[in-house]
Specification:
The chain contains 18 helices and 19 strands. With about 525 residues, it is α+β, with helices and mostly antiparallel strands. The strands form 6 sheets. The chain has a 5-stranded mixed sheet, with helices on both faces. Strands 1-2-19-18 form a 4-stranded mixed sheet, covered by helices on one side.
Length: about 525
């Protein structure tokens, strides 16, 4: 794919939600599903429609950033290329140092995914060898129907192979740990949803493999016709239940949280977070199976749906989530040098609770005490409203915690806090404060982090700590701050040009011609 085409596709993803809101049926029909190939004309119309939806979405996004002061804008007038009249150009530039700060957390999440991929490379090679051995059989089982439609058969061996691939592939996708596999939600453990999601991913990867064979065999057939497929809903549910040896009714219930339909359309498309749905309900009896929904991040769709459907279960799980995180951080401070306090400690004054400490660790070697506030937020992606809410809550609560803890220490002293934590008496310890966000600690539009603490997302913290486990707490704090600063300096941000109505919008240009 050429660079211009790649940029066009990347921009178009911003239009997915607007497009889905306009084409997913609000009321399902029982009429026969119309099946026809995608032609060059249809593709051009679809591309224009989605791109215009993307321009609308980005226009709304940038308008919000202008109102928040994240961007500055300047309208410039330039002669049109044909010499007739002038063209108005809105030039937008970042106005805050925190612009695109979400990239800091994303860089950590991407590193975590790459690490899992590298660790799984041996298993991946084994699967590639299995694929080569069965490639001839795969080629004999697929055919092109009507000059554009994929048809194939399978075997238990082939299905098992793609299930193994799906398990490996899904492992590297972020945010799935938001719910533990044994957490109960919707009346069943989350592991049941994961089993169904794995089977869907396996089916998707199998379809892609067969599509690739046909693409090589028939280069003239457009990839869009090869990738997207549909199936009768009843057939799909029953065959999936049989494959997983599960109850049909349970599978149908679970699939509701993986299917975009009129029932949950507003839940998934009202914001800016793209709804990459594993399944789309096209009619009363027909399901569309868009492979992109399982290739990008199916967990985000599933988690958003479960949160909306089972709110009480969701918040119960959220309250218990911190315990799993505490267990993870304890493993990073294992050994006789470190003394940890893994229970919430309330700091009181005159019988009143002022704040609390989520986790604390004492370095016996240097007599340094680290205090932590830990916030496990929901992944925000690129949704503007979610970013504003998460950033405001996280920064304000973090700053308030830092101020309150320092005030308490000024009045009662670090030695008293060490005593209340039950740590060994090595004299008055030097105190370090840390504010941790599970996915993000830095947000566009929020520049006022209290510098008396180190602010970090969990992956940066984990990465720096694992790299040098013998460093003292003060050295670790310095290393962590440097790592976060390095990620900030590596921010790329967006840079693009697009039409919004009659206005040309140029965002974050490297240079601007004279008027």
């Amino acid at each position: 794919m050429e660079e211009n085409e790649r940029q066009f596709r990347s921009l178009s993803t911003w239009g997915v939600n607007h497009a889905l809101r306009r084409i997913v049926p609000r009321s399902l029909t029982s009429r026969d599903f119309k099946d026809f190939p995608s032609t060059t004309t249809i593709q051009a119309q679809a591309d224009d429609f989605i791109f215009n939806c993307a321009a609308l979405e980005l226009g709304e996004r940038y308008e919000g950033w202008l109102r928040e002061g994240i961007l500055s804008g300047e309208v410039r007038c330039h002669p049109k290329p044909d010499g007739e009249g002038t063209l108005e150009v809105l030039v937008l530039r970042p106005a805050r140092s925190s612009y695109s700060d979400e990239e800091i957390g994303l860089s950590g999440l991407n590193w975590s995914s790459r690490r899992i991929t590298a660790n799984d490379r041996g298993r991946e090679r084994q699967l590639e060898q299995r694929h080569r051995k069965m490639s001839r059989d795969l080629g004999q089982r697929v055919e092109l129907i009507g000059g554009w439609r994929v048809s194939y058969s399978s075997t238990p061996e082939i299905d098992c192979y793609f299930m193994d691939w799906a398990r490996l592939y899904l492992r590297r996708i972020r945010s799935q740990e938001l719910i533990a596999s044994d957490d109960m939600i919707g009346g069943r453990p989350f592991s049941r949803y994961l089993e169904v999601l794995t089977a869907l991913s396996a089916r998707s990867q199998k379809h892609i493999a067969y599509a690739a064979i046909l693409r090589a065999r028939y280069p003239h057939v457009h990839i869009r016709n090869l990738l997207t497929s549909h199936i009768v809903r009843e057939t799909f549910v029953s065959s999936l239940a049989e494959f997983l040896d599960a109850d049909t009714e349970e599978i149908e219930t679970i699939l509701k949280s993986m299917t975009l339909s009129s029932e949950n359309l507003d839940v998934h498309t009202s914001g800016s977070e793209t709804a990459w749905a594993p399944i789309v309900q096209a009619s009363e009896g027909t399901l569309l199976l868009p492979n992109y929904g399982l290739d990008i991040n199916p967990f985000l769709f599933l988690l958003a749906d479960l949160r909306a459907r089972h709110e009480r279960d969701w918040f119960r799980i959220a309250n218990d989530r911190e315990g799993r995180w505490i267990e993870e951080i304890c493993r990073l401070f294992d050994g006789p040098r470190w003394q940890t306090h893994d229970r919430n400690l309330k700091l009181r004054s005159n019988g009143r609770v002022e704040t609390d400490i989520d986790f604390a660790v004492l370095d016996r070697k240097t007599n340094e005490l680290a205090l932590f506030q830990m916030k496990w937020q929901h992944p925000i992606g690129f949704d503007n409203r979610a970013r504003r809410s998460a950033g405001k809550n996280f920064i304000e609560e973090g700053n308030r915690w830092i101020e309150t803890v320092n005030s308490w220490l000024d009045r009662f002293g670090a030695a008293e806090l060490r005593k209340r934590l039950g740590f060994e008496d090595l004299g008055t310890p030097n105190v370090r404060l840390f504010v941790l966000g599970r996915y993000h600690a830095h947000y566009a539009g929020f520049d006022n982090h209290d510098a008396r603490a180190v602010w970090s997302d969990w992956v940066h913290f984990q990465r720096v700590r694992s790299h040098a486990p013998r460093r003292s707490l003060s050295q670790f704090a310095s290393d962590l701050q440097s790592a976060v600063n390095q990620s900030r300096s590596g921010k790329k941000g967006e840079s693009l040009m697009l039409p919004v109505g009659n206005l040309a919008v140029v965002f974050n240009p490297s240079s601007v011609p004279e008027q």
